[in-house]
Amino acid sequence: MSPRRPTSLRPAALRRNRSWRPGLDRRAVFHAPPQPSAGDGRAPADRHVVVVGGGIAGLTAALGLAERGVRVTLLERDERLGGRVSAWPVGLPDGSGSVMSRGFHAFFRQYYNLRAVLRRTDPTLSGLRPLADYPLVRKDGGADSFAGIPRTPPANLAAFVARSPSFDLAGLRGVDVEQALGLLDLRFPGSFTDLDGVSASEVLDRLRFPTAARHLALEVFARSFFADPREFSGAELLAMFHMYFVGSSEGLLFDVPRDDYDSTLWGPLGAHLHGLGVQVRVGRAVTEVHEGTDGRLAVHHRGADAGTSEEVLDADAVVLSLDPVGLREVVAASPGLGDPTWRERVGAVRSAPRFAVWRLWLDGLVDPERPPFLGTSGYGPLDNVSVLERFEDHAAEWSREHGGSVVELHAYALPDDAGDDEVRAALRTALHDVWPETARLGVVHEEWLVRGDCLLVGLEPWASRPGVTTPDPRLVLAGDSVRCDLPVALMERAATTGWQAADALLTGWGLPGHGVWSVPLGSRLGPVPGLVRRGLRAAASVTRR
Q1: Cβ contact 401:407 at 8 Å
Q2: pLDDT over 70 for what percent of the chain?
Q3: How far, in Å, CA of 113 to CA of 111, rounded?
Q4: Rounded to whole angstroms, how far apart are CA atoms 406 and 91?
Q5: How many Å apart are CA 60 and CA 54, to the nearest integer?
Q6: What span, in angstroms and rounded, lies between the C-alpha atoms of 304 and 17?
Q7: Average pLDDT in the 242-270 region?
Q8: What is the pLDDT of residues 474-503, one digit of tens each?
Q9: Is residue 103 within 8 Å of 408, Cβ to Cβ?
């Protein structure tokens, strides 16, 4: 199928006037794409781009290119789209079917660029269901909630501290005020490099937050990156705090898909891409990329079966949108890509420690007061627990028919020497501790998976990480493994760099790009936090004299 030529620079459903914003925050920032070059006069449909990887980043890049009329082939090694946010069918003991995934994902309202992708097939985002709260509990009895907190900083921060049991008066007296003001005094991308080599754990130490607040207000963020705070970038921690809390007025509550990821999100998007002329080929693993003929690149790929013959696609450009493991492997197998410095940077991309997802189909219901999603601290390896029938339709149907609950446990940053049986035993104990009624329930079915293919944003210099563009203008990168100078994270970084990768190719060919959105890049209080911090330093200097 040949691509449809676009009738306008943007799909009709997404045209907006100058006052339009992608969310509730009126200060959200639009970052225009690069100015198109002069181009060489070739029609968009005469160019062929191979997108390697069918996760969020690859789907976004393919969408951005196809909407400008470029011919796109998308290769995905798995049998379905979605990458690390995919879902797949599983069979239950009674012969019925259900769905499994790599775990719960929160679609925050600040995820402007991901939501732009989803709006292509769901303009009103009706496929997302809001969750009323994101409670966090600590084993010693502390608990926090984000429900009812004002959306706009600094009122949201003040309200959270005022009502949180994690910030008692004694603990607040010990807080380093100057360091705390630093949370309100971030400016990107400069703030990324200001903390080169400083871990999230050290940032928390400098703040001198009360122990309870340290665990519930900040450390939970670090672990959501599948990382131990001692090995996780302090700049990334503060960027996330800025994106979700002190830099945005979208609030910290979020949405989740109404059903599994495949039927709700990626199935419709795959059909939409097909309608734009994108050739989507699943079950195809790219093995190498090298110099082809006539200034093009040759992309080698094969099926998952050992006996599958290799095929080669010629491409005017290639988008590598892979997880850290896949990116390192493809670049290592493609010695002609990039230059030695760039290849060294790609080789240094680190994988986060393993994480575990344990989904349990129980023969009875958990307490009806249990929240859909609960973050935990101090319960051994358990980082969160969710009740799927509270938000996913397929789980709700199973619960109604069988009178049971579908519960999912997550454990991040597992030690290298932790065995599966050991982790499961600890998670079972933690679940019974958090929700005692589960100790009386039997397990009808379980799905257990451990993966180690997520990114570790470590202590290496921010500028040393590979970005979207590469030394070869025919090759771009996309994904949450790729450096982005905007305060974006996780799924939103994948979508943002996907748009940016498409824009880099499009504008290099003289075609219009798309641009991306972000939360404000600096403090919502302007220079006030910085002035106060400088005043505190001056006062401290006088006191020491």
Answers
A1: no
A2: 90
A3: 6
A4: 14
A5: 9
A6: 47
A7: 93
A8: 999 999 999 999 999 899 999 999 999 999
A9: yes
The candidate with the shortest Cα–Cα distance to 362, out of 439, 429, 424, is 439
pLDDT band at 39 (very low <50, low <70, confident <90, very high): confident
DSSP letter at 6 equals P
User: pTM surpassing 0.85?
Assistant: yes
Within 8 A by CB and 6+ apart from 371, the residues are 133, 135, 387, 390
Provide the angle, in degrees to the nearest 10, between the axes of the packed helices 234-241 and 200-207. 70
Q: Which residues contact 535 (CB under 8 A, 6 or more apart)?
A: none
How far is the C-alpha of 526 from the C-alpha of 382, rounded, in Å? 39
Cα gap 249→242, rounded to integer Å: 10
| Residue in the block written with tokens 């926090």 | 144
Between CA 87 and CA 100 the distance in angstroms is 6
Query: Each residue of 440-454: pLDDT tens digit?
Result: 999 999 999 999 999
For the chain, helix (H) and strand (E) counts, in that order, are 18, 22
Distance from C-alpha of 483 to C-alpha of 510, rounded to nearest angstrom: 25
- Given the structure tokens 């005469």, which residue do they identify? 46
Average pLDDT of the residues in 180-197: 87
Helix axes 56-66, 267-275, angle to 10 degrees: 20
Tens digit of each residue's pLDDT (9 = 90 or more) over 153-172:
888 878 887 887 777 666 66
Q: How many CB atoms lie within 10 A of CB 82?
A: 24
The three-state secondary structure class of 21 is coil
**Contact status, residue 500 vs residue 152, Cβ threshold 8 Å:** no
Give the pairing of strands 384-387 and 317-320.
Answer: unpaired
Residue 500, classified by CB atoms within 10 Å of its CB into exposed (0-12), middle (13-18) or buried (19+), is: buried
Residue 1: partners with Cβ closer than 8 Å, 6 or more residues away: 274, 277, 279
Nearest to 233 by CA among 458, 10, 414, 419: 458
First-last CA distance in the chain: 77
CA distance 293 to 305: 28
pLDDT greater than 60 at residue 225:
yes
Report residue 259 CA to chain centroid gap: 19
Which stretch of 87-91, 157-161, 232-236, 435-439 has the lowest confidence by average pLDDT?
157-161
Residue 189: Cβ-neighbour burial (10 angstroms; 0-12, 13-18, 19+): middle
Of 227, 273, 274, which is closest to residue 63 (Cα–Cα)? 273
Partners of 430 in the beta sheet? none
Cα gap 220→227, rounded to integer Å: 10
Beta-carbon contacts of residue 276 (< 8 Å; ≥ 6 apart): 3, 4, 63, 66, 67
Query: Distance between CA 497 and CA 297 in Å, rounded?
Result: 21
Residue 472 in tokens = 């070869």
Residue of 189, 166, 192 whose CA lies nearest to 378 = 166
Counted residue by residue, the chain has a size of 545
